[in-house]
UniProtKB/TrEMBL annotation:
Organism: Chanos chanos
Entry keyword set: Signal
Annotated GO biological process: negative regulation of plasminogen activation; negative regulation of vascular wound healing
Pfam families in alphabetical order: Serpin
Name of the protein described by the UniProt record: Plasminogen activator inhibitor 1
Signal peptide: 1-18
Gene symbol of the encoding locus: serpine1
One GO location term (cellular component): extracellular space
Gene Ontology MF terms in the entry: serine-type endopeptidase inhibitor activity
Subunit structure comment from the entry: Forms a heterodimer with TMPRSS7. Interacts with VTN. Binds LRP1B; binding is followed by internalization and degradation. Interacts with PPP1CB. In complex with PLAU/uPA, interacts with PLAUR/uPAR. Interacts with SORL1 and LRP1, either alone or in complex with PLAU; these interactions are abolished in the presence of LRPAP1/RAP. The ternary complex composed of PLAUR-PLAU-PAI1 also interacts with SORL1. Interacts with PLAT/tPA. Also interacts with SORL1, when complexed to PLAT/tPA.
Transmembrane segments: none
Amino acid sequence: MQYLCGFLILALCGTGLCSRLQERQTDFGLRVFVEASRSAPDTNLALSPYGISSVLGMAQLGAYGETLRTLTAQMGYSLQERGMPREQRLLQRDLAVEEGLELASGVMVDRKLVLEKSFRRGLSKAFQSTPHQLDFSQPDTALKVINAWMSDSTGGMIPNFLPAGVLSEMTRLVLLNALHFHGLWKVPFDHKMTEEMIFHSGNGSLVTVPMMRITDKFNYADFETEDGVEYDVIEVPYEGDSISMLLVSPFDRDVPLSTLSQQLSNSKLKEWRQNLRKINKQLALPRFSMDTELDLKSTLTKMGLGEIFSQRKADFSRITTEEPLCVSKVLQRVKIEVNEDGTKGSSATAAIIYSRMAVEEITLDRPFLFLIQHKPTGAVLFIGQVNQPQEH
């Protein structure tokens, strides 16, 4: 089964919570999703725009020079600007008061690293987060501490977020965001109405799924893209009405979801919401669950953020002046469960920051050339190319 963004957007616009910062974060997060979906057009994919914006926002607070300019240009905002940390704190506060929604930001720092006061102050102002010291010279122990923190912060849905080997003695910081949501539908689906039905997958195959059914008055509208592709948007509210799920699908089964996802933006969400009207509709929605793990380094690099990963160029001197740092990985895992009663969802996001003096691994997991050379004379004794390694 394929879904738009996990176009499970837990939509909060329209409740008075929107701000300049939220709009730009949403735009950035949606662009990350669109880029990530290009490499997996026919598979399930779920992502947390808020989680990605949060960990890269924390990284912004420690960036300087060209690295800061790159982050600001690509993300559309800078938390180092006057007033922006307050907007971040207020956005986080407004989200945290919602029933069934839990947020947590964490900063795990190597115990030997001295952080700049301005970075500590920025973390406190924007994310109300205080760094916790870990001993990354014992990476296995540090891994257990971080995974336990993430498990506690996601209601146990994501117990083993970071895989073994992702931390090392050269790890200096791990920036973390956890999001956990448990919402009941405002009007639940009747379990007795659920029946097996055929679902037309994005790759053309047919699968049998448990299809939930309900008839009610929903906010609904139909739209048309500039290319003439027709699609509809229906809103399914959770208890309390401040959080809802938007479901977006093309009329024609043969239309790829990329046709719709490529137009995603905060302004498009606003346009949809402004046109929704209460209409009596019967909704058939598959019961489903998703578990997505993403390494976003390639995606962010394609979006123009490659500098933050560069051992030569990255500048995070506002974090510390003791040694140069760069981002090693940006990881995210999202789990979603949707059934007749409601939705449970958790996201875990981490930016892992290494010392730029770390030894970067070169993995020859693709064809390569080899030369055996006599160095004093320069004579090449052997040369070859390896396309399919074989042992003898």
